[in-house]
Amino acid sequence: MSSTVRIVFALCTVAFVAACAGKQEEVVYVDEPQLTTEPVYTGKYK
Question: With CB atoms 3.0 to 4.6 Å apart as the test, which of 12, 17, 37, 46 could cross-link to 42 if both were Cys?
């Protein structure tokens, strides 16, 4: 085989192996909303 055919075959093999590799799942962290609301300052006599 010529060197060009070997290079093309090698690149195709690498692309095939990369496409078939197992994909890693992304870890997503979600902040939970507050269960109670904080008291709001409305003045001294309100």
Answer: 46
Domain-by-domain residue ranges, the chain? 1-46
In residues, how long is the chain? 46
What Cα–Cα distance (Å) separates residue 18 from each residue in 6, 7, 14, 22, 23? 18, 16, 6, 9, 10
Query: What is the rounded distance in angstroms from the CA atom of residue 32 to the CA atom of residue 38?
Result: 15
Rounded to two decimals, the pTM is 0.45
